[in-house]
Design brief:
By secondary structure, the chain is an alpha+beta fold. The chain is about 25% helix and about 40% strand. It has three helices and ten strands. The longest helix is centred in the first third of the chain and has 17 residues. It is globular.
Length: about 190
């Protein structure tokens, strides 16, 4: 019970910037708080998504599968076919890449750590912990925009998440770096494990 009470003030602080859409400000805020709590309590998940990574002069499309058991995250490339089976395993701050004589150097999208392989875990972390700048509820979709409250809009990393308002399933997301969208994800399957 004490843990739940400690999360409530933190969630309210994270939601101070939420705004409403057609279905009202209070409805969007309440739903965002409810979904945030569910994702914070989640002990594991699996998902599959289409990921578009835009490096400016080059664009890559991937199909990725992600599983998380609460301790380790495994990201498996499904497409393109030539990279099918390449697996990244992330445990805490450490990660390994498993493959059979294949490599694709895409580089980082933010100059530090954001890559197509880390995009989906980044979206899940945003759903659980990032500061919510604003949110809207329109036509059964909750849009949640996360950003660093100490930075100006359009600077640093910003994340936009879309949830199904009925099922609370994460259906997609975008990651922007300094005002330019670098990752777009459409989640085709999502299961809490």
């Amino acid at each position: 019970m004490k843990k739940q009470l400690l999360f409530l003030p933190m969630m309210l602080l994270l939601l101070t910037g939420c705004g409403g859409g057609q279905e009202g400000k209070n409805g969007a805020e309440a739903l965002a708080v409810e979904i945030r709590g569910e994702y914070m309590a989640m002990t594991g998940y699996s998902l599959q998504a289409q990921v578009n990574a835009d490096y400016g002069q080059r664009v890559y499309d991937f199909t990725l599968s992600v599983t998380n058991d609460g301790e380790e995250t495994a990201v498996v490339i499904r497409e393109p076919e030539m990279l099918s089976g390449v697996t990244a395993r992330i445990h805490g701050e450490e990660g390994t890449l498993e493959y059979d004589d294949l490599s694709l150097e895409t580089g980082f999208l933010d100059g530090e750590s954001l890559s197509p392989v880390s995009a989906l875990p980044t979206l899940m972390e945003a759903a659980r912990t990032q500061y919510i700048d604003r949110c809207t509820l329109t036509d059964g979709v909750l849009e949640v925009h996360c950003a660093d409250p100490e930075q100006d809009s359009g600077t640093g990393q910003e994340v936009t998440l879309w949830f199904d308002a009925q099922t609370h399933v994460l259906t997609g997301g975008e990651i922007s770096q300094d005002g330019r969208r670098v990752i777009a994800c459409q989640i085709t399957e999502f299961t809490e494990t």
